[in-house]
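stage 2 :: seqdesign
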């Protein structure tokens, strides 16, 4: 690689962050950029490891040693070309990916892994600043049309690839803007929304057409979309949240995390919030659920000025806490420590919620919980929890955000009307690698097929499904496949 001794000379360093006291005053991203010298040093840490496991650790098959080498040599166009050959949206993954590539980094065996995610973000930001990010659609079109339903990372990646293959692409989105959970789930302090808009501009120049406020299966019939196109990719996400049907659920003050997060993302973007305001300001907040959604509720509650924030998780505390140099959480993966926790929240593990308690006006006033102990299987994995007798307690609170994951896609509308088969987990049935559903011409990608997952997997599925559609339409495909990399 660029500097064979780099991994011995330089320690892993991440860019500085805005101090907590400052960053909680707004919703801006708070991770700064490397200096030129630091970026050069960090890329030099990628060693000539022989078998770069980072390739297969990344769901996109990113060709990491090669782009690190190009960064070290300051060959920005080369670095961008390598990175964009496997990843349509490094500006998203470079900000919010949990970076499975870093946990696969060979250097990580005895030193902190190469800071791959940050290097990726720098490559794409430099590429934009040097005007290297250009439309990729060919001048000669295939004459085929493809509809993509859903504009989350899976739908956007599919659309970008299909357009690159020369097909006419229309993206249908029920929301008023594109991005899916990037837009209306993930808060601005993790991903500012101009980053999505900048990418959409490139895609629009590429000829991708976006139809907003259009729910397929409601505002426009799903049959019509299938009839009028040569192929369809459905990428509607996994949007039905897991509920907690215990006594008191009807009380005022208990909300699904997504209702809370979506409102705040709209406020930050100056988009009108039409529903009743859901705010944590001045309240004692309890977040139930320990994943990304839960920690985004913590960060948002802090910024709204909550009086106190507690986060409950029924799982046990993981044996090793995630640190910034050990980016992949240890088992169980749901219990991540994120930058939102640095900003302040009391975390409790092994807590089960029994009941929500209200006052005479039907407002939430407290939660009754108990502690649990877990039975483990032979591998040490938790299989069943039991209540710890006598551990019940009541905790005052006026806001609860339910962040316990998502069950499945919405069936009502598109899936029901097309009669698409579901898999045993109740997601859309379409095997990984083929992405074809039970309905002719209809393919599926992202959380709708895979179940709730990660942005990097959504992009990967969108790309791979686009390639399968291209093969279906043309008999072969020149689009890149991650299988060619690994
Ligand atoms: P989505 O992003 O859900 O997009 C689906 C889109 O389809 C939506 O815009 C929806 O409106 C639209 N749609 C659905 N049905 C229809 C229809 N019938 N007609 C028209 N449009 C339709 N992952 C990470 O890697 N890092 C993180 O930090 C992270 N943080 C997260 C934080 C939160 C709060 C949440 C909820 C998830 C987070 N994730 C994170 C997970 C990640 O966002 C998802 O895995 C990813 O967005 C899934 O992409 P997708 O394209 O499959 O679906």
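stage 2 :: out
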């Amino acid at each position: 690689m660029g500097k064979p001794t780099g991994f011995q000379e330089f320690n892993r360093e991440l860019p500085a962050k805005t101090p907590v006291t400052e960053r909680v005053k707004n919703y801006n991203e708070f991770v700064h950029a490397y200096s030129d010298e630091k970026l050069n040093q960090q890329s030099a840490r990628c060693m000539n490891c022989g078998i770069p496991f980072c390739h297969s650790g990344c769901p996109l098959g990113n060709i990491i040693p090669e782009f690190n080498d190009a960064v070290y040599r300051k060959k920005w166009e080369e670095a961008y070309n390598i990175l964009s050959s496997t990843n349509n949206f490094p500006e998203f993954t470079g900000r919010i990916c949990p970076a499975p590539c870093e946990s696969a980094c060979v250097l990580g065996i005895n030193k902190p892994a190469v800071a791959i995610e940050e290097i990726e973000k720098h490559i794409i930001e430099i590429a934009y600043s040097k005007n290297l990010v250009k439309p990729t659609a060919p001048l000669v079109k295939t004459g085929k049309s493809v509809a993509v339903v859903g504009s989350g990372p899976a739908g956007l990646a599919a659309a970008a690839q299909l357009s690159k293959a020369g097909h006419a692409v229309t993206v249908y989105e029920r929301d008023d803007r594109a991005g899916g959970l990037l837009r209306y789930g993930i808060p601005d302090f993790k991903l500012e929304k101009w980053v999505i808009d900048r990418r959409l501009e490139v895609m629009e120049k590429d000829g991708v057409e976006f139809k907003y406020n259009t729910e397929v299966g409601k505002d426009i019939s799903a049959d019509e979309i299938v009839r009028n196109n040569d192929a369809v990719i459905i990428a509607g996400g996994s949007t039905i949240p897991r509920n907690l049907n215990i006594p008191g659920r009807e009380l005022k003050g208990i909300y699904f995390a997504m209702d809370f997060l979506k409102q705040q993302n709209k406020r930050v973007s100056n988009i009108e919030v039409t529903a009743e305001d859901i705010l944590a300001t001045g309240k004692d907040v309890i977040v139930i659920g320990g994943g990304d959604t839960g920690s985004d509720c913590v960060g948002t509650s802090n910024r709204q000025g909550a009086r106190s924030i507690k986060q409950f998780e029924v799982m046990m505390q993981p044996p090793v806490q995630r640190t910034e140099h050990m980016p992949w959480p240890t088992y169980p993966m749901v219990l991540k420590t994120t930058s939102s926790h640095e900003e302040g929240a009391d975390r409790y593990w092994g807590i089960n919620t029994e009941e929500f308690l209200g006052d005479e006006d039907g407002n939430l006033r407290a939660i009754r919980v108990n502690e649990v102990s877990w039975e483990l299987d032979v591998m040490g994995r938790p299989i069943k929890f039991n209540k710890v007798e006598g551990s019940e307690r009541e905790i005052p609170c006026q806001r609860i955000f339910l962040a316990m994951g998502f069950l499945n896609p919405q069936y009502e509308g598109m899936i029901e009307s097309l009669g698409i088969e579901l898999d045993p987990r109740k997601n859309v049935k379409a095997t990984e690698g083929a992405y074809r559903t039970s309905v002719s011409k209809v393919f599926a990608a992202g959380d709708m097929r895979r179940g709730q997952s990660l942005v990097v997997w959504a992009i990967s599925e969108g790309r791979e499904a686009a390639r399968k559609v291209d093969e279906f339409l043309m008999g072969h495909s020149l689009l890149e496949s991650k299988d060619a990399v690994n």
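stage 3 :: structure notes
- The radius of gyration is 23 Å.
- The first helix runs from residue 6 to 9.
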